[in-house]
Amino acid sequence: xxxxxxxxxxxxxxxxxxxxxxxxxxxxxxxxxxxxxxxxxxxxxxxxxxxxxxxxxxxxxxxxxxxxxxxxxxxxxxxxxxxxxxxxxxxxxxxxxxxxxxxxxxxxxxxxxxxxxxxxxxxxxxxxxxxxxxxxxxxxxxxxxxxxxxxxxxxxxxxxxxxxxxxxxxxxxxxxxxxxxxxxxxxxxxxxxxxxxxxxxxxxxxxxxxxxxxxxxxxxxxxxxxxxxxxxxxxxxxxxxxxxxxxxxxxxxxxxxxxxxxxxxxxxxxxxxxxxxxxxx
Length: 281
Ligand code: SF4
Description:
The chain is α/β, with parallel strands linked by helices.
C-alpha cells in the first residue's frame, strides 16, 4: 500500500477513502466539545482569520475571562451531550499561563469525570507541568502552517512556528497527550503538506486534525475562499494513513465538511452547544 503523502494523494477517491476507512475501522469514536476559559488574546496584531474576533463583534461571545461558575455550568451541559473530551481554549496569554487556568481545571476535575485538553498557544514547560498537576490530560498545539510565509500571512503577530514546535516538545516531555495539525489553506503545496505530516509524525502526536480554512465576517480574510471540502477530506484521509496510530479528529461538524468528513475515517468529532444554551450564562 502507498505510504507517502505524495503517493496517497495520487490515489483516486475510491481507493484513498476506502483505505482510510479500512485502516481506522475499530477506532473508538470520541466526541469533544469546547469550553472557553478566556476569549481575550495578547496577540498583536490579531490573526487575520480569527473567528473569535467575529463572534465578539457580533456579541456572540463575551470578551475576556469567564467566571468559574459559568465554566462549571457549561461542563455539566457538555457531559450531557456524551462528549468525553473537553477542550478548554484561551486566547494567547503569553508563554506563562495565568494561575487561575490551573484553578479552573482543578475545580472542573473535582466535580466532573471528563478528559481535559488545554489550548493556549505556545507556552512554557513549567506552565504545562502546573496544568498537568491541576488535572489536564492533554494539550492541543497546532502547527498552524508548515510554511513560514503562509503562517505569517494569516498570523502576522504573536508566537512563531518554532515556538509551536518547542511547545509540542514540551507537551510530550510533560507526559501529556499531544493533539496537533495545521490549517490547509493559503497556498500550501504538496511538499509543504508532506513537511507538515513528517513534523507531526516525528512529534509523536496522539491526535491529528487537518483544519479547513473557513472565512468569517469582520475579519481581514473575510473575502478569501474557504478550503475546498473535497480536497480537505482527501488530505485528512491521506494524513491519517500516514500517521495510523494516532486518533484522527474533525474540527468542523456541519455542512459540506461534515459530509466529506465521513469519508476520512476520523474517529474524533466535535459537538458544540447551541447559542441559546450558551447565552443562558
Ligand atoms: S491567537 Fe487565536 S484568539 Fe488570538 S488572535 Fe489569533 S486566532 Fe484569535
